[in-house]
Amino acid sequence: MNGTAPERASINSRIKQIREALEMSQRRFSFMLSLSGSYIARVETKKMPVNPRLVKLIVSEFGVNEDWLKTGRGEMFSQNPDEKFTKLVGLFRELPGKYQDFVLKIVEHLLEMENA
Asked: What is the pLDDT of residues 1-48, one digit of tens each?
C-alpha cells in the first residue's frame, strides 16, 4: 500500500457507466445525443473534457440525475427507469419516422385488443 487515495471516478467514466447501464453502443449513444461516435469515445477515454452542453444533453435525453453525473452523489437516474422501457425508447428513436408511426399504430391496436 503506497498511501495514496484511490482515484475517484471522473465525470467521463460516469458517462460511460450511463451508456453501459442503458445497454447502448457508443454509436447509438452518440446518435441519440446528435454527436459523433468519436466524440463520445474521446470523452469516455478522458481525451476530451466534458462541457456543460454535454451534461445537459445527457440529463435531458436519458433522465440522468445531474448531481450524480457531475459529482457521483445520489442515484444515477432521476427516476429509476424500467430497463425494458428505456431500451424500447432507445430503439424507437432510432427508427425512421414512418416506422415510428407504424409502431405506434401497432401498440394502439394491441391496447384496443387488450381492453376489448
From this structure: 444 433 468 999 999 999 999 989 999 999 999 999 999 999 999 999
pTM of the complete model: 0.64
d(CA 43, CA 48): 5
CATH of residue 64's domain is: 1.10.260.40
Dihedral sign from CA coordinates of 44, 6, 20, 84: negative
| 40/83 Cα distance (integer angstroms) | 22
Distance CA 86, CA 88 (A): 5
Structural domain boundaries, residue 111: 82-116
Overall domain count for the chain = 2
DSSP conformation letters of the chain: --SPPPPPPPHHHHHHHHHHHTT--HHHHHHHTT--HHHHHHHHTTSSPPPHHHHHHHHHHH-B-HHHHHHS-S-SBSS---HHHHHHHHHHHHS-HHHHHHHHHHHHHHHHHHH-
